[in-house]
Amino acid sequence: MHKSERLFQLVNLLKGRRLAVTAKQLAERFEVSERTIYRDIETLQSSGIPVQGEAGIGYLISDHPLPPMMFSLDELTALLLGSKMVSAWTDPTLSNHAKSAIEKIEAVLPAQLKHHSEHSPYLVSSFKHDAQQQTFSETLRTAIESYQCVKLQYQDVNDNHSERTLEPLGLVYWGGKWTLIAFCQLRQDYREFRLDRMQSLTILSIPFSTNNTKNLTHYLALIRAKYANESDENPVSC
């Protein structure tokens, strides 16, 4: 393990603990010598991190403000991958925030981690919605966060047109298309609406609320149960 990554993990291990951790325990945890741990503690203390304790007793970091959160190599890989997905696949506002986050992360990466990031095996394609879908996405995110109903003009797969008043619950990306999960006031049930089939969308000044049987988590639980039942009823033969 590289020293910088060990220091990151050491901070995360020590901060907020009620009981001190001895150098011996830390040495066993990181598979290094106790002398290395003593040097690491000195490095952290000299950089302003409030490590308390001493040799033979143990160490902890009390509840004081710390520098920005430090991450392991795998954690940074996950954060960068997720940020690139948001940048490529969401509305303009979230996309810009994701790009800003990527720039901040990459600006402070040590050389070794920066090299790893630049040669990541994961590639996020620059898939883009058209301008109208991006507008719908941003409008729906606003409505979902503020618990406001929306009026939707929609064209289904059979080219049938309809107008619905919906309680928007969440946006789901199924690997090719964004879909709105909503509670339809006309049908009094969950319905799904693809963003690429929406014709127009307006936020209404009508608030709504969720409950145990009307929320995104409940919808997903119903979907999982449905597919589980279908799998049990139609086993695959080998």
Automatic annotation (TrEMBL):
Pfam families: HTH_11, WYL
Stated name of the protein: DNA-binding transcriptional regulator
Domain of life: Bacteria
PROSITE patterns xrefs: WYL (PS52050)
Helix-turn-helix type domain segment(s): 6-59
SUPFAM superfamilies the record matches: Winged helix' DNA-binding domain
Matches recorded under InterPro entries: CBASS_pafABC_assoc_protein, HTH_11, WH-like_DNA-bd_sf, WH_DNA-bd_sf, WYL_dom
Chain ranges of the WYL domain: 138-203
